[in-house]
Design a protein that fits this description.
Length: 358
């Protein structure tokens, strides 16, 4: 039998064309039947422009199993904008940039938070919700920026620059946050820096974000040499080539990109700022100068915009898959813990940012 979803026809037998999940998982999933296809049709509507009818029977039973486990565990999934569309649109309860996810972590009533993102995001959730169980589906989901600086490095910076406030990007470990005065994200970095009322501020660890903030404020910014391994690979030349090909192409960049890339861009902002720009301005063609999956997530909702994709994948974000989210909720792994004394000090820095933004 076949089930018709708008103009797309999905056959219950089409599961055969997809590679199965690991056998032990496959055996636990609901069978792909016409009833399940009909039940999952509203979710397919959300992703039908970016997930093919061949792929859907592969994902849908797992999505159903995850959404059932979420109810049993009173869990929520916080999905970063870089998650793949089947995660972002079909199992994510809250979606957004790192600031929005941190705010959700602070206010959710759920008992369990599954962080569909990277480790520093899960630590931030644990810092803000110490009484909750915070899970990350893969412990190796790290971040090159977070690894570029240690708590010891920050202590040395304090000695070198006595009295200068230290702002840390949230892309850092809890131990680093605990040594800093306040955190920031790419959505609020300028506001955070200016809130301190100091003529000089240390902004660590992302050198390019700090250089971007310097172009937006009179506060003197001292920085660190950390870089994002995904954003530092973009070049102004490749982006100019897209614009030359079609002058209507809008170039929309994340502030973790190198300065010459940002200088080329029509707009620079956090991942959510970039999405809002596309939704409001509806350019004919757009290049999202950031992680690959974000363009797919936006394309699912803005079918009138053509996305040119100079694709750079974040290998850490891509460790989070439907399969691993399922195993995470099934086995309640991997629990993220933060030493209470470190968490207490890091919380002050994160809450100062969250309250500022509120
Ligand atoms: P956002 O805060 O813009 O979501 O960015 C987080 C991140 O890791 C970008 O690479
Ligand atoms: Fe870290 Fe860059 Fe990946 Fe964001 S995209 S999580 S900054 S490595």
């Amino acid at each position: 039998m076949t089930v018709v979803l708008n103009t797309t026809t999905i056959d219950a037998n089409s599961k055969n064309v997809q590679p199965a999940f690991a056998a032990h998982i496959d055996a636990e999933l609901p069978e792909w039947t016409d009833e399940l296809a009909a039940e999952m049709a509203p979710l397919y509507e959300r992703v039908k422009h970016v997930v093919t009818p061949m792929e859907w029977p592969h994902y849908a039973p797992l999505i159903k199993a995850i959404n059932t486990l979420k109810k049993e565990r009173n869990a929520v999934i916080l999905a970063h904008n870089y998650m793949t569309p089947e995660i972002f649109h079909c199992v994510g309860d809250f979606r957004g940039d790192s600031l929005q996810l941190a705010k959700e972590a602070a206010s959710t009533k759920a008992d369990v938070i599954v962080q569909a993102g990277v480790h520093f995001m899960a630590e931030t959730s644990k810092i803000l919700s110490p009484e909750k169980t915070v899970l990350i589906p893969d412990l190796k989901a790290g971040c090159s920026l977070a690894e570029s600086i240690t708590a010891e490095d920050v202590r040395k910076l304090r000695e070198t620059y006595p009295g200068v406030p230290i702002v840390t990007y949230v892309n850092t470990s809890a131990a680093v946050k605990a040594e800093c005065d306040i955190t920031c994200t790419s959505a609020n970095a300028v506001k955070v820096v200016e809130s301190l009322g100091s003529p000089r501020v240390l902004l660590v660890p992302d050198e390019y974000l700090a250089q971007y903030v310097q172009t937006q404020t009179d506060v003197e910014i001292i920085t660190w040499k950390g870089h994002c391994e995904v954003h530092e690979r973009f070049t102004a030349e490749e982006l100019e080539a897209y614009r030359e090909e079609d002058p209507d192409t809008k170039i929309i960049a994340h502030p973790e990109c190198p300065p010459d890339v940002i200088a080329t861009a029509d707009f620079t902002g956090s991942t959510s700022g970039m999405i809002d720009y596309v939704k409001k301005n509806r350019p004919k063609k757009a290049v999202l100068v950031t992680e690959c999956s974000m363009a797919s997530n936006v394309a699912a909702e803005t079918t009138d915009v053509e996305f040119v994709r100079p694709c750079n994948l974040c290998p850490h974000m891509k460790r989070i898959s439907l399969e691993r989210i399922y195993e995470s909720l099934r086995d309640m792994k991997y629990e993220v813990t933060v030493d209470p004394e470190v968490a207490e000090r890091a919380r002050r820095a994160v809450e100062r940012m969250v309250n500022l933004n509120n």
